[in-house]
Amino acid sequence: MKLSQASDYAFRAVLYLAKQGVGNRVDAQTISEVENIPKRFLLKTFRKLAQTDIIESYRGKYGGYALAKDPADVTLLDVVEAVEGPIEVNRCLVEPEACNKQGADTCRIHHALYDVRETITDKLKEYTFAKLLAE
Amino acid sequence: MKLSQASDYAFRAVLYLAKQGVGNRVDAQTISEVENIPKRFLLKTFRKLAQTDIIESYRGKYGGYALAKDPADVTLLDVVEAVEGPIEVNRCLVEPEACNKQGADTCRIHHALYDVRETITDKLKEYTFAKLLAE
DNA sequence: TTTAAATTATACTGGATTAGTATACTTATG
DNA sequence: CATAAGTATACTAATCCAGTATAATTTAAA
Questions:
Q1: How far apart are CA A87 and CA A75, in angstroms?
Q2: What DSSP character marks residue A53?
Q3: Is CATH 1.20.120.450 correct for B5-134?
Q4: Which of B92, B76, B95, B89 is nearest to B118 (CA)?
Q5: Tens digit of pLDDT for each residue in A59-111?
């Protein structure tokens, strides 16, 4: 049970942008070098963050990326969901037809895993980038 | 971020054995049918649970499997770890050399993810099979 | 002592996912 | 209009996942 490498890179890259302040743009090359992230991979990951309005992208010469929101309004969960989709924990939580006992109501394991998922998302929500900057 | 299907099957199969009571053996065929789990896959998964002493296996005619411990002493975490290994969250938590900033001490993301991992394992520990049976 | 019914050991397979790379294109600035 | 940035799309090698196959071993009972 693991987050993807893309999420990890995204955490570090967004934290880097947060350090620069909202709206201050930096190009991918620089972030890639400073944070030690493969550049093309970072570009691909950044596109997802831009599509979900966590960061803004600027094309053309002197283009780059900048944090789009107040760091207090961006959490680790926002980044994970943007990069790798929702936290699933178990396929029966997402595809009811995959639940071998169907009844979400009657399956005790299902209940427990639902609780686990909520615990994970709550914890990831606790970590805003404002908090990460402040530490 | 997901648990494997094998873990899910294992949860349901162990709960089934817990229902039978400690030491009461049932054969894989039966469990496979009742819980709707591919038999060969279940056999493979059960071997891991037997190796970690969560269940006992009995070979030969009238063989089968039985819970090896008090259900109060078996948790979802025990089963997950037996079946798919430790909860990792992030590769930098496991392989320090993969941490692009090295310093676990100085990396804020690292700290946060460590906290996330602990939260997950604590929650999975909360669910003993005694508790799951009681609900 | 043979037979049947069970687990064990090992290995294979197809498909999906992951991590990363490549190529061609578009956009903005000076 | 040249240059330096991001965008779109697609490719690839490696790994993991879910499930299957085959042969061997063990045990109980007839």
A1: 14
A2: T
A3: no
A4: B89
A5: 999 999 999 999 999 999 999 999 999 999 987 766 655 565 555 556 889 99
How many angstroms separate the CA of residue A55 from the nearest CA in chain B? 18
- Contact: A89, B2; criterion CB under 8 Å: yes
Task: Tell me the backbone φ, ψ of residue A91, rounded to 5 degrees.
Answer: -65, -25
Kindly report the nearest CA distance between residue A117 and chain B, in angstroms.
9
Q: Would an 8 Å CB–CB cutoff place A19 in contact with chain B?
A: no
How many other CB atoms sit within 10 Å of the CB of residue B1?
20
Residue A47 CB in 7 A reach of strand D: yes
Q: Residue A18: which of A43, A55, A51, A45 has the closest Cα?
A: A55
Q: Which long-range contacts (CB under 8 A, 24 or more apart) does B96-102 make?
A: B100/A12, B100/A35, B100/A36, B100/A37, B101/A12, B101/A35, B101/A36
**Please, which positions of strand D sit below 7 A from a protein CB?**
2-10, 17-22, 25-29
Convert the pLDDT of each residue in A32-66 to its tens digit. Answer: 999 999 999 999 999 999 999 999 999 999 999 99
Q: Which two tokens stand for residue A36?
A: 């030690």
pLDDT of residue B36: 93
Within 13 Å, how many C-alpha atoms sit on residue A130's CB side?
A: 9
pTM: 0.93
CB–CB of A106/A76 below 8 Å? no
| Cβ–Cβ < 8 Å for A41, A9 | yes
Q: Which two tokens stand for residue B47?
A: 């071997």
3-state class (DSSP) for residue A89: strand
What is the distance in angstroms between the CA of the first residue and the CA of the last residue of chain A? Answer: 27
